[in-house]
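[step 3/7] inverse_fold.run input=structure_tokens len=56
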């Protein structure tokens, strides 16, 4: 009697817990390009805000 392993249960609405990370645990500590892009956008927005607050 052979049992097949069940696929991992997805959270509600079929979304993974972390959409930007791969499913496998072996690459869980690597940063993706989209994460770097979001970090860059955040830093640029913070820089623009601080410049605006400094000038006014």
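[step 3/7] decode complete -> sequence:
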């Amino acid at each position: 009697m052979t049992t097949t392993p069940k696929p991992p249960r997805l959270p509600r609405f079929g979304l993974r817990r972390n959409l930007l990370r791969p499913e496998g645990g072996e690459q869980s500590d690597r940063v993706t390009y989209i994460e770097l892009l979001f970090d860059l956008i955040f830093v640029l927005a913070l820089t623009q805000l601080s410049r605006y607050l400094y000038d006014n």
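[step 4/7] annotate
Residues 33-55 form the longest helix (23 residues).
The chain has a mean pLDDT of 79.
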